[in-house]
Amino acid sequence: MVHLSHVTKAAIALLALPVLATQAGTSTCEVTDSDACAIDSLTASTDDGSVLIYPGGDTRCAFDDYTDSVTTFASNSTYFFQVFPAAEASKKKLLLFFQGGGACVDKYTCDFALQCQLGASSLITTKASVTDSGIMNRTLDGNVFNDYNIVYLPYCTGDLFVGNKYLEPYESVYNQALGNKQCLGQDQGMYMNGYNNTMAVLKWALANYPDPEQLVIGGYSAGSLGAQMWSAYVAKTWGVESKGTKFQVLADSYVGVFPEHKTPASELINYYGGCGLVGFPDSMAAECEAETATVIEMVSSLMNEAPSAEWLFIDSIADKTQRKFYELVLLGIAGYPFTNLLPADEFYGNMTEILDAYSAFMNVTRFNIDSDQHVWLTGNTYESAESLEGGYLGDILSSWLAHPSTPEATTTTSTSTPEASTAAAPTPAPTTKPAPTTVSAKTSKPLAFSPQAQQLQELKQLMCSLLPHFNLHAPLC
Predict the structure, then answer these.
(1) 250 inside domain
(2) Where are the beta strands (DSSP E) in 221-357?
(3) Contact between 424 and 439 (Cβ < 8 Å)
(4) Which CATH number covers residue 289?
(5) Is pLDDT above 60 for 45?
(6) 118 in any annotated domain
(7) Distances 242 to 229, 352, 362, 405 between C-alpha atoms, Å
(8) Given 7, 36, 227, 352, which residue has the most CB atoms within 10 angstroms?
(9) Structural domain tally of the chain?
């Protein structure tokens, strides 16, 4: 029997995508048959200027309520979303922003027992949470979204906001090999309910902000891909093409670099049950269900549904989290401890290839940063992030959002492929000109085995020795 030490659990935490959210006091409203929680009838919190809305109905998070006293893991089934009304009740500008927070990829990772056993390092967020940082920070001077109505969609289903299926309780040999056995036998299935949650939020948003002059859909990390997947549906639902609404898609730190040679991205969307739900044309929905469509093919088909849209991709050229998720999709849980990430230059090359394909027919702006940091818009110094060509994120966003003028598509990639780098924390922006984000060079090379990595390697070897007894096989065994 293998029990994970504290350092081993810390190493496993490398797989978990970060959840960049803080708790904040808010006023609340529960949707009922007699109360639709109309925004005009609500008073925003004096703490952060937001309102929490509980839509009820068929919304919920992945797991039933549970708190583990040993691992500190906790799940909560209740779903809610957060709204930041604009000042003076103006409804001209609307931002729909999807939270990030990990994703599971197969039956070995999409199960309650594993999340519970990993405790605070669970691979997905399992409770809805609120935020008041970054572009949602109303007290941040110079925040380009301060005059927007912001509808913030929390993420607690591990399915990139497109899931629509229930997974029966499942425990594998991996669970048997891990410690924290109190997490086993809880008989908890997983509700991939991202589709229902998103639909409930969009229904409310449409009723309360039906005719914005400017509509932005965006997200960070897993929420970035969620925003891309929902872009065509939102464009059609709000009638942006017929109304001439300025429609934009803001994708922070997830382009969609997948190991397509092994696992087409559509295989993941189909596993969640989302191929026929998010606005794909019929032909693309069929390719998605056949698990043959790539990221480029899926997103391009959605872009074509709203040809006047403007897209902005914000990415670090050596983003470690995107590269780790690539390895998770490629190798599954058997790939621990992921000591050899996709080289930074290959990641950047793949990302560039994807964005080049989009730029061939769409208005696409890129803001590439010489860093391995994951996620930018949730930090209170996001405006000072500097692109490869020396532009500042605050300035680029301000220009991109400018209304009614439509900026031409721009590209901030350099002619050569830079090596990976590590960014220091961005310095606060002065009142005149933001300070650049400082970076230091770092070459891309395989990581050496640390003691905790060695422990995980031994755990993997043990698992591999057990699998034949169950007539199972894992990619690295």
Answers:
(1) yes
(2) 246-252, 310-316
(3) yes
(4) 3.40.50
(5) yes
(6) no
(7) 21, 32, 18, 18
(8) 227
(9) 1
Q: Are 277 and 164 within 8 A, CB to CB?
A: yes
For the segment 198-205, the average pLDDT, to the nearest whole number, is 98
Using the CB atoms, write b or e for 446-472: b if 16+ within 10 Å.
eeeeeebbebbeebbeebbeebeeeee
Q: Rounded CA gap, 74 and 116, in Å?
A: 8
Which long-range CB contacts under 8 A does 231-234 form with residues at least 24 apart?
Answer: 231/279, 231/302, 231/303, 231/305, 231/306, 231/309, 232/278, 232/279, 232/280, 232/301, 232/302, 232/303, 232/305, 232/306, 233/202, 233/278, 233/279, 234/96, 234/202
- In sequence order, the β-bridge partners of residue 166 are 191
With a CB cutoff of 8 Å and minimum separation 6, the contacts of 315 are 253, 254, 255, 322, 351, 366, 367, 368, 369
For residue 209, the 8-state DSSP code is S
**What does the block give as tokens for 449?**
């085995």
Query: In angstroms, how far is the first alpha carbon of the chain from the final one?
Result: 19
377 near 385, Cβ under 8 Å? no
Asked whether 256 and 269 are in contact (CB, 8 A), the reply is no
Provide mean pLDDT across the span 21-48: 83
Nearest to residue 310, comparing CAs of 399, 221, 205? 399
pLDDT tens-digit map of 244-300? 999 999 999 999 999 999 999 999 999 999 999 999 999 999 999 999 999 999 999
Residue 338: its pLDDT value, please?
Answer: 72
Tell me: pLDDT of 455 over 50. no
The residue segments making up the domain with residue 49 are 28-55+79-104+132-149+195-401
pTM to 2 decimal places: 0.82
Phi, psi for residue 69 in degrees, rounded to 5:
-75, -15
- The amino acid present at 258, given as its one-letter code, is F
How would residue 121 be classed by pLDDT, with cut points 50, 70 and 90? confident
Tell me, yes or no, whether 459 lies in a domain: no
Judge whether 355 and 366 are in contact, CB under 8 Å: yes
Residues composing the chain: 477
pLDDT of residue 22: 35
| 93-98 and 214-220 beta bridge pairing | parallel
Tell me how far apart the alpha carbons of residues 190 and 97 are, in angstroms, rounded to a whole number: 24
How far is the C-alpha of 432 from the C-alpha of 395, rounded, in Å?
A: 12
Q: Which amino acid is at 334?
A: A
Q: How many CB atoms lie within 10 A of CB 361?
A: 11
Give residue-wise pLDDT tens across range 70-88. 998 999 999 999 999 998 8
For 219, list phi and psi in degrees, rounded to 5.
180, 170
- One-letter identity of residue 179: G
**Strand extents, DSSP E, 200-242:** 214-220
